[in-house]
Amino acid sequence: xxxxxxxxxxxxxxxxxxxxxxxxxxxxxxxxxxxxxxxxxxxxxxxxxxxxxxxxxxxxxxxxxxxxxxxxxxxxxxxxxxxxxxxxxxxxxxxxxxxxxxxxxxxxxxxxxxxxxxxxxxxxxxxxxxxxxxxxxxxxxxxxx
Length: 145
Known about the structure:
This protein is mainly β. The chain is built from 1 helix and 10 strands; from the N terminus they run αββββββββββ. The chain has a single domain, classed as Immunoglobulins (Immunoglobulin-like, Sandwich), CATH 2.60.40.10. Helix content is 12%, strand content 48%.
């Protein structure tokens, strides 16, 4: 099977077009006060009161977590497509049904400190349908023996 080449000029043009397609999309992350949200036309808009929680000191093997609540301040229903955790020591539960405009949902993140020591920083990526970038939620803990 032959591979068709565009040549150097063609490849550069393709890269330029891709760059403008990516950079011209709406969906910028904005911070107002302590509220974080993604902007987009006709989309749901998740607004979190906080995106980081300090669990304090934990003894090795303890579990602790936080519930991150958000409100849909957009004009359309909002739903969570997926939540990705950083490692197997972190588990997430979240609102599975669409969150209507004006309603609230949650992402609950549980950290298991087994096998950990010292300061731990765990991050979770929340992907909302129709929005380009994930919201990052964080847990911080100091694990002691």
